[in-house]
Write a structure and sequence with these properties.
Elements (H helix, E strand, L loop, with lengths): L3 E12 L2 E13 L4 E5 L6 H9 L6 E6 L2 E2 L10 E4 L11 H12 L4 H14 L15 H13 L5 E5 L7 H18 L2 E6 L2 H7 L2 E6 L2 E6 L1 H6 L4 H6 L6 E8 L2 E4 L2 E4 L2 H5 L6 E6 L5 E3 L7 E11 L3 E8 L5 E7 L9 E5 L6 E4 L5 E3 L15
Parallel strand pairs: 3-8, 3-9, 6-7, 7-8
Antiparallel strand pairs: 1-2, 1-4, 4-5, 9-10, 11-12, 11-14, 12-13, 14-20, 15-19, 16-17, 16-19, 17-18, 20-21
The structure holds adenosine-5'-triphosphate.
C-alpha cells in the first residue's frame, strides 16, 4: 500500500518539431488506499498521466513519488505498480492460469507451488476458477476482463492503475463490473487510479475525482462536491447527465438578463458576483420545476419541444417562449407532459450556479441543505 504524490507533473511530446503539451503542471496527492478516478474528454492527457506513473513514459518536469520516494527514474518493473488496460492485453497462447502466473514469475522469486496458490485464491475471488485452463479466445469479454484484473491483483502491488478497463464491455456488464471493482478495491485497500472518459463511472466509483481538460487539472474533489460545487464551467458541464443547463446572462443592477427572460437576484447571491457582469447562469435539469402558472419572479413561460420518457423520469427539451433558447428539464416519470404543451419553468434561486463568462470560474454555487449528508465529502 502506498500514497502517491504528483507534483507539478508535465509532459511535452515533440511532434516533428512542434511541441505538444499533453500534461500541464498537474499536482495531486492520492491517499493510501484511495480510489481516485481521473476523468476528462478524449485527448485531455489521462493516459499520458497514467503512463508516466507506471513508468512507461518519461516525465518532462515535476516529480512522481510513491510513499516518500521519488520514482521518476525508477524503471516500470521496479515500481510495484500493476496496470489493467482497456484491451486486456492477455497473452493469447497462454491459458488463464499461465497469464496470471506470468507476472508473478517475472517479478518475484516465489516458488511454483506458492504462485499456484496465489493464482487459485485470486481466481476464486474473481469467480474465474473454473476457467483457469482455458485460453483467452475461449472467454467472453467480461471473463477476459476478470483475467486481466486477476493478473494485476495476484501481484499484490502497492498501486493499481486502470486505463478504461470496462469500456469494451456492454452496458449491463459494465455496471455490474463497476460495483464489483469497487468492492474488490475496498477489500484489497490498494491505492488505485482509474482512468475513464465516462462521467458516470467517475461519479459512482471514485472516492475522489480528478478532472482534466487540455492537460490541466480542473478540480480534485469528491464526486458530490464536483457535482454540487463545481469550481468552473468546464467541471459543471462535464459532470452530470444530462448536463447542466447554461445560459449567457448579463447582470443589470440586481437582475440577470438573458435571452427571453429576466431573473432578479437576492442580495446574498448578488454579493457573490463582485464586479463581474458578463455571466453564465447554470441550473441542473432535475432542479428545473415545470409548473402550470407563473407565481414568482423566478419563472417564465415555456413550450415543451420534446418529451423523452426514461421510465423513472421524463427528460424534457423546453423552449423559452418567443425565443430559440432551449434547455433540459427532468421531471418525475409518472407525470404526463405532452409535446407542444405550454407550461411554466421555475428556476429556484437556491439551485442556480453563476460563472464568470470569461474565466469560467464559479462565482456562486447552489445552496445545499445543511441536513444533506454528502457522504465522504469534505464540504
Ligand atoms: P483518450 O481518452 O482519447 O485516450 P487521453 O485523455 O488519454 O485521451 P492522451 O492519450 O494522454 O489523452 O493524449 C494527450 C495528448 O497528447 C493528445 O493530444 C495526444 O495526441 C498527445 N500524445 C499522446 N501520446 C503522444 C505521443 N507519443 N506523441 C505525441 N503526442 C502524443
Amino acid at each position: 500500500m502506498a500514497e502517491l504524490t504528483l507534483t507539478g507533473v508535465t509532459k511535452r511530446f515533440d511532434d516533428g518539431g512542434d511541441e505538444i503539451l499533453a500534461v500541464d503542471d498537474v499536482s495531486i496527492e492520492i491517499d493510501d488506499g484511495e480510489f481516485l478516478v481521473l476523468v476528462g474528454p478524449s485527448g485531455c492527457g489521462k493516459s499520458t498521466t497514467l503512463r508516466m506513473i507506471a513508468g512507461l513514459e518519461s516525465v518532462s518536469e515535476g516529480t512522481i513519488a510513491i510513499g516518500d520516494e521519488v520514482v521518476n527514474d525508477r524503471p516500470a518493473q521496479r515500481r510495484d505498480i500493476a496496470m489493467v488496460f482497456q484491451n486486456y492485453a492477455l497473452y493469447p497462447h497462454m491459458t488463464v492460469r499461465g497469464n496470471m502466473r506470468f507476472g508473478l514469475e517475472e517479478s518475484t522469486d516465489l516458488d511454483s507451488a506458492t504462485i499456484d496458490e496465489r493464482v487459485e485464491e485470486t481466481a476464486a475471488m474473481l469467480e474465474i476458477d473454473e476457467l483457469l485452463e482455458r485460453k483467452p479466445a475461449e472467454l467472453s469479454g467480461g471473463q477476459q476482463q476478470r483475467v486481466a484484473l486477476g493478473r494485476a491483483i495476484v501481484r499484490d502491488p502497492s498501486v493499481f492503475l486502470m486505463d478504461e478497463p470496462l469500456s469494451n464491455l456492454d452496458a449491463k456488464l459494465r455496471s455490474g463490473m463497476r460495483m464489483e471493482l469497487q468492492r474488490l478495491q475496498n477489500e484489497l485497500g490498494v491505492t488505485t487510479i482509474y482512468v475513464t472518459h465516462d462521467q458516470t463511472e467517475a461519479m459512482t466509483m471514485g472516492d475522489r475525482i480528478a478532472i482534466l481538460d487540455d492537460g490541466r487539472l480542473q478540480q480534485v474533489a469528491t464526486p458530490l462536491e464536483c457535482y454540487h460545487r463545481p469550481e468552473n464551467l468546464f467541471v459543471a458541464g462535464f459532470i452530470g447527465e444530462p448536463s447542466m443547463n447554461v445560459f449567457d446572462v448579463t447582470l443589470d443592477g440586481d437582475r440577470l438578463v438573458g435571452d427571453g427572460f429576466e431573473y432578479p437576484l437576492s442580495p446574498e447571491v448578488r454579493e457573490d458576483l463582485g464586479e463581474s457582469t458578463e455571466l453564465v447562469l447554470g441550473i441542473r435539469p432535475e432542479d428545473v420545476e415545470i409548473v402550470d402558472a407563473v407565481e414568482t419572479d423566478h419563472e417564465f413561460p415555456v413550450e415543451i419541444d420534446v418529451v423523452e420518457p426514461m421510465g423513472d423520469e421524463n427528460n424534457l427539451l423546453v423552449r423559452i417562449d418567443g425565443t430559440e433558447t432551449t434547455f433540459t428539464a427532468s421531471i418525475g416519470g409518472m407525470r404526463r407532459v405532452e409535446t407542444g404543451e405550454r407550461k411554466v419553468a421555475r428556476f429556484p434561486e437556491s439551485a442556480i450556479h453563476l460563472f464568470d463568462r470569461e474565466s469560467g470560474r464559479a462565482l456562486h454555487n447552489r445552496a445545499l441543505d445543511e441536513e444533506v449528508e454528502l457522504a465522504g465529502s469534505r464540504l
